[in-house]
Amino acid sequence: MPLILVIDDDRSVQHLVTQALKPLKAEVLTAQSADDGLAQIRERSPEVVLLDILLPETSGLELYRRVYDLDPKLPIIFITSVSSGETAIEAIKLGAYDYIHKPLDVEQLRDKVQQAVEIRRLMHEPVVLPDAGTEPHEGDLLVGNSPEMMEVYKGIGRVAPQDVTVLIRGESGTGKELVARAIYQHSRRANGPFLAINCAAIPEGLLESELFGHEKGAFSGAVTTRIGKFEQCDGGTIFLDEIGDMSPMLQSKVLRLLQERQFERVGGNKTIRVNVRIIAATHRDLENMPEEKFRSDLYYRLNGFVITLPPVRDRGDDLLILIDHFLKRFNRELAKQVQGLSPEALNLMMRYGWPGNVRELQSILRQAMLQSTGPVLIADFLPGDVRSGRRRNGGAAPEAGADLNRFIRERLEADSKDLYAESIEFLESALIRRVLTATGGNQSRASEILGIARGSLRNKIRSLGISIDRVVSDSEDEAD
Ligand SMILES: Nc1ncnc2c1ncn2[C@@H]1O[C@H](COP(=O)(O)OP(=O)(O)OP(=O)(O)O)[C@@H](O)[C@H]1O
């Protein structure tokens, strides 16, 4: 339950905030003076503070500085009136999270508080890299020790202390946000601010102003100047999630920021210089997007350091480790005593393609555990998609990327008598599909890469029953 503190001498504001935040199931603390507010911050450690900018005796800005000294990463939302708008801008420049005008709009208040709670979680909740199998007492553990995940941990370790831009790639739910947080927390900017923007979630027209701010009167509705996230995050780290969904016009503004560290607010002509580290993420295949969708110069600029998260179906036995990890966690959280999965349930989980990756695994296990009554989780509690053995992610991809170990294990369980030939065929099929995906179905290019004659590639494609159209359309689906 989030803990929110309101510091305002006006009891009607305290009451309104308490009522407004009820749907968030938040506990709301109230303070009428600066001293009371500071005392509660020390004693109760709220997650977000709503602070009246016009407090009697102390100015809100002065109190902000004192709160900042106590906890520089505590998100503060100022409650302002139109007449105190300039002070609010000042506060944002000093690093306050946001501000909201009186009379308070309940929906807007709820949204801002929710976002602030999330930002606090991203900044404070530690991401722990695996270390000799110990489970941390707090925070999120990055689970898995497949070679692909080892590369990810190595990448985080290598890039975090360097002050460079990072691009995190991977399908939805593979842990890109977790990796971004880990980089931030292990960086030299760990004590500075961290802000996250999902570029796909904000309408195109609003994103520019959200990121770069705007001047008063820049467009109808711009009644006051607004400080954008880049300016607010000066000295810190910004996580641009789903950067592949950003419009080309904004891409060029981001490119300039990366190259020259400067920009102008919307409708402004004053050049503003900032020092922000960008961590970007995408599930899209940026290099194969047409120029009018994603600028290649930005792609090359972002591509300096890339961390690629593999899909769960390509992580081999990591799936078992992830299942074990979430079983333990949900046993704790849901007060259950599930010890494991029945062989049938486990087999179905291993065969499933996990298109939603770790996030989907988490939610399926949680749902199943909520329903389970005994110590063993049986297949009946798994959703239809998993039970039906459908792979849901387009047919070719799991086969192309599937794990050899898992294949061998399944064939051993099936008591195969031709495992050598079956495994070679499996490998050949996966390899050829993968290379054809990379070349967009171009067989000449694929035969060059593979180092085999075009004729023998054609024969293999035929004998292995590979459909070029299918491979290409599946790779396009993945990019969508
Ligand atoms: N290796 C991992 N170990 C433990 N938990 C993980 C791992 N990877 C992801 N998770 C968990 O899975 C969920 C999804 O992760 P996250 O939000 O980082 O994915 P994402 O790639 O950013 O997703 P999207 O592209 O949809 O935004 C989170 O709850 C995260 O904590």
From TrEMBL:
<dbReference type="Pfam" id="PF00072">
    <property type="entry name" value="Response_reg"/>
</dbReference>
<keyword id="KW-0804">Transcription</keyword>
<dbReference type="InterPro" id="IPR001789">
    <property type="entry name" value="Sig_transdc_resp-reg_receiver"/>
</dbReference>
<dbReference type="InterPro" id="IPR002078">
    <property type="entry name" value="Sigma_54_int"/>
</dbReference>
<dbReference type="InterPro" id="IPR027417">
    <property type="entry name" value="P-loop_NTPase"/>
</dbReference>
<dbReference type="Pfam" id="PF25601">
    <property type="entry name" value="AAA_lid_14"/>
</dbReference>
<dbReference type="GO" id="GO:0000160">
    <property type="term" value="P:phosphorelay signal transduction system"/>
</dbReference>
<dbReference type="InterPro" id="IPR002197">
    <property type="entry name" value="HTH_Fis"/>
</dbReference>
<feature type="domain" description="Sigma-54 factor interaction">
    <location>
        <begin position="142"/>
        <end position="370"/>
    </location>
</feature>
<keyword id="KW-0678">Repressor</keyword>
<dbReference type="GO" id="GO:0043565">
    <property type="term" value="F:sequence-specific DNA binding"/>
</dbReference>
<dbReference type="InterPro" id="IPR003593">
    <property type="entry name" value="AAA+_ATPase"/>
</dbReference>
<dbReference type="GO" id="GO:0006355">
    <property type="term" value="P:regulation of DNA-templated transcription"/>
</dbReference>
<keyword id="KW-0902">Two-component regulatory system</keyword>
<dbReference type="Pfam" id="PF00158">
    <property type="entry name" value="Sigma54_activat"/>
</dbReference>
<feature type="domain" description="Response regulatory">
    <location>
        <begin position="3"/>
        <end position="117"/>
    </location>
</feature>
<keyword id="KW-0547">Nucleotide-binding</keyword>
<dbReference type="InterPro" id="IPR009057">
    <property type="entry name" value="Homeodomain-like_sf"/>
</dbReference>
<keyword id="KW-0238">DNA-binding</keyword>
<keyword id="KW-0010">Activator</keyword>
<feature type="modified residue" description="4-aspartylphosphate">
    <location>
        <position position="52"/>
    </location>
</feature>
<keyword id="KW-0805">Transcription regulation</keyword>
<keyword id="KW-0597">Phosphoprotein</keyword>
<dbReference type="InterPro" id="IPR011006">
    <property type="entry name" value="CheY-like_superfamily"/>
</dbReference>
<dbReference type="Pfam" id="PF02954">
    <property type="entry name" value="HTH_8"/>
</dbReference>
<keyword id="KW-0535">Nitrogen fixation</keyword>
<keyword id="KW-0067">ATP-binding</keyword>
<keyword id="KW-0963">Cytoplasm</keyword>
<dbReference type="GO" id="GO:0005737">
    <property type="term" value="C:cytoplasm"/>
</dbReference>
<protein>
    <recommendedName>
        <fullName>DNA-binding transcriptional regulator NtrC</fullName>
    </recommendedName>
</protein>
<dbReference type="InterPro" id="IPR025662">
    <property type="entry name" value="Sigma_54_int_dom_ATP-bd_1"/>
</dbReference>
<dbReference type="InterPro" id="IPR058031">
    <property type="entry name" value="AAA_lid_NorR"/>
</dbReference>
<dbReference type="GO" id="GO:0005524">
    <property type="term" value="F:ATP binding"/>
</dbReference>
